[in-house]
Design a protein that fits this description.
Coiled coil: 120-147
Region (Disordered): 1-77
Helix content: over 70%
Number of strands: 0
Biased composition (Polar residues): 1-13, 36-51
Oligomer: single chain
Shape: rod-shaped
Radius of gyration: 60 Å
Largest sheet: none
Keywords: Coiled coil
Structural class: mainly alpha
Length: 169
Amino acid sequence: MSQPHSSPIQTFSPVPPSSAQPATVPNKIDIKSSQEKPPSSVKSTVSARSETCTKEKKTGRYKGALEKPFPSFNSQSEIIQPFQDDRASDRHFEQELARRLIDLMLETHAWSAARPRIERQEEERKLETELTKIAELEQSQEETRQRLVAFIHSVQSAIMALKAPLRRL
């Protein structure tokens, strides 16, 4: 571990072979240290090879899908048309809402303008009914008074009639 050593395995490099440097073979290899723990360059070489194999498998799996041309994205039908339809329905909704609000305001105004007249007419009917009841009650009381007066006159005349023969006696 005292000396760094390079791996006897040549690593994959994306650099063209003409500019690649040849791998150097160390003069001395420490067997204990290489058995205990493999050098990091060996690990990276192994992992690079496994990644390359994995990429080749994945590429093979998707090769058919990648060779097909992608369908073009139609922004008109996917984004613009639904947005315009939404805006048109929103405009229609806003117009309908405005029409209903105007109708409601007109009906409320007509109701509030007619309300005093209707209330006055209703109060007038109630008052006329009360006056009619009072007039009927007065008429009834007048008839009762007249009958009472007639009764009193008849009682007085009966008393006078009873007194008159006694005076003659």
